[in-house]
Amino acid sequence: MSADTLLSVQKLERHFDGLKAVDGISFSVHRGEVVSIIGPNGSGKTTTLNLVTGAIRPNGGTITLDGERIERADSARIAEHGIARTFQNGRVFATLSVADNIEVGLHTTLRAHRPFRRLSNLFLLRWIPLLAELYIAIVGTPASRRERAAIDAVVESEIDRFEARLGRRRDDPAYSLSYANRRRTEIARALALEPKLLVLDEPTAGMNQSETAEVLAQLLELKAAGQSILLVEHKLDLVMTVSDRVIVMDGGRIIAEGRPDDVRRDTAVVEAYLGRRRGLGGVDLA
Ligand SMILES: Nc1ncnc2c1ncn2[C@@H]1O[C@H](COP(=O)(O)OP(=O)(O)OP(=O)(O)O)[C@@H](O)[C@H]1O
Ligand SMILES: [Mg+2]
Asked: Among residues 239, 242, 212, which one has the least CA distance to residue 224?
C-alpha cells in the first residue's frame, strides 16, 4: 500500500442468505482522489458503501483506512476515524432544524462535552459519563464552552457552503424542506465532520437537471479543495465529469475499472448496462 492510499479494500465479501451481494472485491482510494462506483441495480454498490462505513460487517476481506484496519469497527468509530457518508434514500431528522441536523453529526467528535465516554461501554461504570455529561450540560466548563463555540462555527460554515439554498432555512424543520434541500442538509452534515473520506450514495437521486448540475459544481469544488470522495451515482455524465477513476460493479464483482474515458469504451461495461437491458437499461454510454 502506498503512502498515498487512503482507503484500501481487499477481497471484501458480504452475502445475504446465499446471495453474494459483494463477492470478493478489491479497490483503493488515494488521497485527494474522486472514485465512483457505477453498475446496474442490485450490483452491490450500496452494500459496498455499507461495509466501508461500518453499517454492516463483511463475511470476509479487509478494509484499511489510513493504515488502520476498520472492517470490524462500528459506524460511530469509523466516523471518528474519518469516514462520513450520506444515504441513498436521504436521511435527515424530520423534526430537527437544518442547523441541528448538521450538528447531529458532530456529536461523535465531542470530547469536552463527553468526558469518560469510553466508560459508557462498561455496564457497571456507565453512570459516570452520564452524570458528567449532565453536569456539563447544566453548568458548563471553559472547555465545553470553547467546544460549543467551535461546533457553532462549523455548523455556520456548512450552512454558508449552501448559503443560497439553506441560508434562509437554517432554523426550519427538515420536514418543511424540498427534497433537494434535505439532501443538501445531509451532505452538509457529512462535511461538517471534515472527513478524510466523503462517501456519497446517489447524492442526486430524485433531483432534476439543474439541481444535479448544482451538486456537480459542488463536488468539483470539493475535489479542487482536495477532498477524497467515494461516490455511487447513476447519472453517468456527472460520474464521468467528476471522477478520477471509475469502478464498474455487476453481480457483486468489479468488472471494469479505470479512467472515465477508458471505462466508457470497455465492452464489459457496455454489456452490463446495455446488453441485458436492466439496471440503467438504455443509458447511452457514447
Ligand atoms: N440487508 C439485505 N438483506 C438481504 N439482501 C440484501 C440486503 N442488502 C442488499 N441486499 C441485496 O444485495 C444485492 C445488492 O444490493 P445493493 O443495495 O448493494 O445494490 P446497488 O448496487 O446499490 O443497487 P441500486 O442501484 O438499486 O441502489 C441486491 O440483490 C439486494 O437485494
Ligand atoms: Mg444502491
From this structure: 242
pLDDT tens digits, 2-60: 779 999 999 999 999 989 999 999 999 999 999 999 999 999 999 999 999 999 999 99
Ligand 2 centroid vs 87 CA: distance in angstroms?
Answer: 9
Same domain, 84 and 113: no
**Ligand 1 touching residue 45 (CB < 6 A):** yes
Same-domain pairing of 77 and 111: no
* Count of structural domains, the chain: 2
280 ligand 1 Cβ < 6 A: no
Q: Tens of pLDDT along 153-188?
A: 999 999 999 988 999 999 999 999 999 999 999 999
166 lies in some domain:
yes
Alpha-carbon radius of gyration of the chain: 20
**CATH number, position 56:** 3.40.50.300
| 70 inside domain | yes
Range of the domain at 44: 1-92+194-286
CA pair distance 202, 242, nearest whole angstrom: 14
* Residue pointed to by grid coordinates 469510553: 118
Q: Is 251 in the pocket of ligand 1 (CB under 6 A)?
A: no
Nearest CA to ligand 1 atom 11: 21
Measured over the CA atoms of residue 50, residue 54, residue 55 and residue 59, the dihedral's sign is: positive
Domain assignment present for residue 189? The answer is no
Q: Is the CB of 253 under 6 A from ligand 1?
A: no
Q: Is the CB of 88 under 6 A from ligand 1?
A: yes
Phi-psi sector, 253: left (phi>0), alpha (psi -120 to 50), beta: beta
Q: Are residues 102 and 172 in the same domain?
A: yes
Mutate-to-test residue for ligand 1 from 14, 37, 46, highest number of ligand atoms within 8 A of CB: 46
User: Are residue 65 and residue 85 in the same domain, yes or no?
Assistant: yes
